[in-house]
Design goal:
Length: about 425
């Protein structure tokens, strides 16, 4: 009976772990997409939203202009795409910060009144009914406000939106705490690590959930508010489900790798261990070589994208918001740090891989560590010289120092953990002999 109860409880903890990990994944996806203002702004840019919005507003205003007896020239210069961006950003700022949304139209009113006066003066007319003109100007600004604020929908839902954000954030924290607690409970009581089951099961659930929604809801034909908004929403949802699919595939692959690595048949590969370690070292050296082969523009663009991703994650976690100009300045300021960190991490991994190869042939000692460090130092020099032959790249002594420092850190970390591993193995042998 006890064994059956233990088996049942073990099954429950695995099931609970998988469900929690699935919930954590879904909530995390929501936080980095729906509740990430920069993600929304990026979607708008990708879909040429501001150009489309400009066309919609111009068409609606043109209709009112004709009704009022004017020509389209009264609309010249009353706003531009840059103003549309700023207004949209202000609306989203209000949504994400739960502040009252007030769309400024003072520039539009000023330019429109000036254009009307010039229009009337050029034709020798006079404005007899100022009240009618003021009413016309208000109609034009209302068209602008309605399209920017989506008929005041965002203002109506902003409180609910922010409450939902808090609920999801609290739910994520609780789910993570429960998952960790369940993991240690399972590890202590049943001597199992449910992380493998969680990864594999969650990967399948994410892909199945994405497939089920896309099969039962015709996402590509969704109609919400206007054709322009519908287009953005469609691409927005497709991007979210694409993230879900990719994450699901990654989970499944990692789960399978962990299953293979922890399976008994891995012992049959031990005879190829030396060759595998050498192959891994060579592959990583090729990866570094390929990164250095990128021209200056491509390398900078890659660094900028990584920096932007870091900023997006940071803003999602901290809840801070930044203007487009601030984000651009942050990218400029932080890209150098990201590039140098990438150098450091690249060579940290190289240091780990080279000492991992060398330890297969002799016991790790000071000479071996010095040889491994010298190997990484010489490769760093060759790597910087290689960059001289890539357009827009330069050779920097500082980068050689950073690369070598990264390698030294990798070798040091490897040596520490390898010594811990050897002590544990030694203790096991002593225990078995006793």
């Amino acid at each position: 009976m006890k064994s059956k109860t233990k088996y049942f409880l073990n099954y429950i903890t695995k099931f609970f772990s998988a469900i929690l990990f699935f919930i954590i994944s879904i909530l995390s996806i929501l936080l980095i997409t729906v509740f990430n203002k920069n993600f929304i702004l990026d979607i708008l840019e990708k879909n040429d939203y501001y150009n489309g919005l400009n066309t919609v507003i111009k068409n609606q205003m043109s209709y009112q202009v004709v009704q009022a007896g004017f020509d389209d020239e009264v609309l010249d210069g009353i706003y531009d795409e840059d103003l549309l961006r700023r207004s949209t950003k202000k609306v989203l700022d209000g949504l994400y910060n739960n502040k009252e949304i007030n769309i400024s139209t003072s520039k539009i009113e000023e330019e429109l009144n000036k254009n009307i006066e010039e229009y009337v003066a050029n034709r020798g007319f006079t404005i007899d009914d100022r009240e009618a003109v003021d009413k016309f100007v208000v109609e034009m600004t209302n068209i602008y406000k309605t399209n920017i604020g989506y008929s005041n929908v965002i203002e109506k839902v902003r409180t609910l939106f922010n409450n939902s954000y808090r609920i999801i954030l609290i739910g994520l924290i609780i789910s993570v705490i429960l998952f960790i607690g369940n993991y240690f409970f399972s590890k202590t009581i049943f001597k199992e690590r449910n992380i493998i089951v969680s990864l594999f099961t969650t990967g399948i659930l994410l892909i199945f959930f994405s497939y089920y929604v896309k099969e039962n809801i015709d996402i590509n034909n969704i109609t919400i508010y206007t054709e322009l908004i519908s287009k953005v929403i469609i691409n927005y949802l497709n991007d979210i489900f694409k993230i879900m699919d990719i994450l699901g595939i990654i989970y499944i692959i990692i789960g399978l790798i962990m299953i293979i690595l922890l399976n008994k048949f891995i012992s049959t590969l031990k005879k190829y261990k030396k060759a595998i370690n050498i192959i891994l070292l060579i592959i990583w050296m090729i990866v570094i070589f390929l990164f250095s082969s990128q021209n200056g523009n491509k390398s900078t663009n890659t660094s900028d994208k990584v920096t932007l991703a870091v900023i997006n994650i940071t803003t999602t976690v901290t809840g801070n918001t930044y203007t487009d100009e601030e984000i651009k300045n942050m990218i400029i300021d932080k890209t150098t740090i990201v590039r140098k960190s990438a150098h450091f991490i690249e060579y940290l991994i190289l240091g780990v891989l080279i000492i991992n190869v060398l330890k297969d042939y002799a016991k790790i000692n000071k000479r071996m560590i010095l040889f491994a460090l010298m190997f990484c130092f010489l490769y760093a020099i060759s790597d910087e010289l290689h960059q001289l032959f890539s357009d827009g790249r330069t050779c920097k002594i500082l980068d050689i120092f950073i690369d070598t420092s990264g390698s030294f850190m990798g070798i040091l970390i490897y040596n520490i953990f390898y010594n811990i591993y050897l002590k544990r193995e030694k203790n096991k042998d002593i225990t078995y002999n006793i």
